[in-house]
Structure formats: structure tokens, C-alpha cells
Amino acid sequence: RITCNERQYTAPILEFTTRPALIAMLSRAAVSAVRLQSRQFSASAASMSGLKERLSELIPTFRDEVKEFRKEHNDTVIGEVTVGMAYGGMRGIKGLVTETSVLDADEGIRYRGYTLPECQELLPKAPGGNEPLPEAAWWLLLTGEVPTEEQVRAVSKDWAARADLPAHVVDMIASFPSNMHPMSQLVSAVSALQTESKFAQAYADKSMNKNTMWEYAYEDSVDLIAKLPVVASSIYRNLYADGSVAAISQDQDWSANFCTMLGFEQAEFVELMRLYMTIHADHEGGNVSAHATHLVGSALSDPYLSFGAGMCGLAGPLHGLANQEVLQWLTQVQSQLGENYTDEELKTFVWDTLQSGQVIPGYGHAVLRKTDPRYTCQREFALKHLGNDPMFTLVSKLYDIVPPVLLEQGKAANPWPNVDAHSGVLLRYYGFDQQNFYTVLFGVSRALGVLSSLVWDRALGLPIERPKSMSTPGLKAFVSKL
Question: Is residue 279 within 8 Å of 120, Cβ to Cβ?
Fold first, then answer.
């Protein structure tokens, strides 16, 4: 028996029902409550925000702008490629176009020209809240415009109306084994949701053309973003709770509904989630999850398959798992030094870590050369809410100690903390200590950036990605002729 919005649902339980089967019954009942309530929402929710209509106005003009720019500068050289770049992960190569955000080495990320502090100030917030709503970031990333509060509320309702999951996905999540990593479950569930793809169906029945592809990519992207909190919460509740998932409320914003479904309804945690989802949303197009989504999408794979590919990349320890590794290292520091350590003892521990051949997790970045503004946003939140929490105190001390040590060592191009140096500590403070799930939260957030970019990929008719690769003998031969 589970309760959703003060209504009780009872799943029949046979004498020999297995635990996975029981969870499946409970999950179906819970998500059915989500589905039943979402169908009561206004069928016109999608058009109430005016977002798709606004895109319909912006896209033709920008298409013409890009066409004229390419006509004049198609052969203009914008950079050079070295052998080191070819072997070094293509770092520094200017070879992608991403409209939604740009990462500056010294300034950090800008969403459509706005810094994160500017986004915190300008984007609409929940009533009584202080942090920007991710729905507003979605609008900004798509249009380059700051939405009104009314527009953002309409987006929230639109997402709530699209949140229900098909039964086969509910059953699939409920049947996953408990030792299956949450990110593997997320990727599998997103792939299974591909049955709902409007893009794939329209391509199959030839009802879309090059000019309308973006509309189907938009519909799939909004559907997927709306369903991701339900998917993620179902995974979380099946792994760490009783399998029940609370119903979506049309009166709540996306993050608040997500927190309710997870089982974390403390007001401060909901505010943290709004901030977390906003600042993790996008980081231009060259990072693994964004590039993988763009790459797979360039083959005209639908947004479900494209996003699933991006999540496979995010699951890697060099990308989305980093915040988990930071928290593990911080726990190791506390375990060995206790809470009454001196700055000198902490400095020695940092040096010992480096001299053992390890890195200091949460420090350094492939592009940034200053403190990550996403770290700063989280630090400011912690200063307001975490007080003298021992783990936050440790993070603060490391902020003063680690950069000088890394500079003295001389190996790090960027000795400053990145976003991962802080996020796990905040989640842990509020009792969200299932570290294997942290990357799922990151993935739900990252959908806002990679899918808004994918919509624009289709709007601009970007072709399939196919860079030239070379072998080492080929490179040697090429270089010898220079």
C-alpha cells in the first residue's frame, strides 16, 4: 500500500511474490498516480508558455544570419591544429559550433552571454525562493532571452503535464538488479523511452522535412526533460527506499517535484536542487556529454538515443563521477586527520597524495584557468546554510591550501577548484549520501543544456559529424613534408 497525494493505492501481493516483482507492482501503482494526475492538467499547457512559438520566430532569422555568415567566411581560417592536439584529446581545437553557452578560460561559463551570477540575479525564482529556476535556464538557453515569471510557471506546468512514464519503462526500472549502477539504469531507461519519440516516428513516416526537424526534436526534448525526474526518482526509490514514488503536482516547479519524488522535501534542499540543476545545465559543446549528444544527434538519431549516448559519457570517472571521487577523498582526509587538524597537517596530506601519484580530486579543469564560478555559487550557498559543518570547513581550508601546493608542484595548468569540489559536500549535508546516485542528478541537469543545443543543431540543419583521423605513420609522413 502506498500513498500518492493523500490517495492510497494497493498492489495485490501473492504469497510467493519476489521482491523485484513487488517493487514493480508498487512502482506501477505509484507512477500510475503520476499519469492519472498529469492527464488532468490542461491539454494546452504546451502552448501556454509560448516558448515553441517564440522559437518559431527566432529560428528563420538566425538561419539566414548563419547562411550569410558562412557565405562570406566559409573559408576563413579560425585556428590551427598541432600534433599535440591530435593526440591530446583535441583540446583547444576550434571545431564545433554551440549556440547555448560559451566557456571562457578566465571567466567561466556564460549562458547565452550571461554569467552564472547574472543568471542567479535575473532568472525568475520560485515564490519565496532565492535561487533561479531551471525552467528559466531552459528558456534562456533556447532563446537567449530572460523569461518572465508567467512564462516560467507555464513551462513548469507543461513539464508536469508530460511527466508520466509508459508502463514498460516503469516495469523495466523496477526489475533492475540492486547491484546495477544508477547511471546504467538511467541510460537503459532513457533508451527504453525511445518508444515515445515523435522525431523517430516522423522520420519513419516521412512527415517531417529539414525545416521542421527542430520541432520534433523540441517535442522529444521537452518530453524527455519532463520525464527524467520521474525516471531518476524511480531508480532512487527502488534502490534506496520502498519503491514508491510520489505524484507530480501541477502547482510545483520541476525541482520541487523532483525533490518530493526523491523523498527530500526540506525547503533548503529544494533550493539547493534548483541551484544545482541550473549551474550544471550546460558547459559549451566540447565536454564529453555535450559532444556525445551532438555527435550521435548529427546522425539524426532522436533526442532519446542522443541523450542516452551523452549519459554514457557522463558516467565516466573523468567526467560526471568526479564529484563522487571528491567526497571519497574528503572522507579519507577526515578519517586520517580527524577534525582537529592543523593547516600544516592538511598541507602535508595534500603533498602526500600528490607524491603517491594521485591527483587532488576537484581541482583543475581542461579549459578553466580560474576558480570555477559553479564552485563559487555552491560555496556562497554553503556559507548561507551550512554553518560550521566539519566537511564544509575542510573544503574551505583546502581552497586556501591546495592551489599554492599545486602551483609549487608545477604540473597543474589550473590549480583552482572546479564544480565537483563542492557539490557532493552540499548533498551529503542534507542527508543525500548515496554517492553512486550523484551522477544521475548531474545527468538530469545536463539534459537542459545538451537538449537545447540539440534543438538548435536541427534548426540550423547541421550535418553529420565526420572529422578526419590519421594514423601515427600517416602523421609522421605528413610532418616530414612540412
Answer: no
The Cβ of residue 110 has, within 10 Å, a number of other Cβ atoms equal to 19
Q: Rounded CA gap, 113 and 143, in Å?
A: 12
Nearest to 251 by CA among 156, 150, 334, 138: 156
Return the amino acid letter for 106. Answer: D
Which three cell numbers, joined as nine digits, stand for 232?
531518476
Neighbours of 252 (CB within 10 A): 17
CA distance 83 to 270: 47
453 is written with which cell numbers? 543545443
The answer to whether the beta carbons of residues 399 and 274 sit under 8 Å apart is no
Query: From the CB of residue 313, how many other CB atoms can be counted at a distance below 10 Å?
Result: 19
pLDDT recorded at residue 25: 55
- Amino acid, single-letter form, for residue 424: G
* Residue 178 near residue 239, CB atoms below 8 Å: yes
Report the first-to-last Cα separation within the chain, whole angstroms.
74
**pLDDT for 140 beyond 90:** yes
Answer left, alpha or beta for residue 208, where phi above 0 means left and psi between -120 and 50 means alpha.
Answer: beta
Catalytic residues: 319, 365, 420
DSSP letters for 354-386: HHTT---TTB--SS--S--HHHHHHHHHHHHHT
Least confident residue range of 195-204, 210-219, 263-272, 370-379: 370-379
| 3-state secondary structure labels for all residues of 462-476 | CCCCCCCCCCHHHHH
Calpha distance 222→286 (Å, rounded)? 23
Q: Are 284 and 258 in contact (CB under 8 A)?
A: no
Exposure of 232 by Cβ count < 10 A (0-12 exposed, 13-18 middle, 19+ buried)? Answer: buried
The partner residues of 3 in beta bridges, in order of sequence, read 8
**Sign, Cα dihedral of 211, 215, 216, 218:** positive
Q: Which residue, 415, 462, 414, is CA-closest to 295?
A: 462
> pLDDT by residue (tens digit) across 308-327?
999 999 999 888 888 888 88
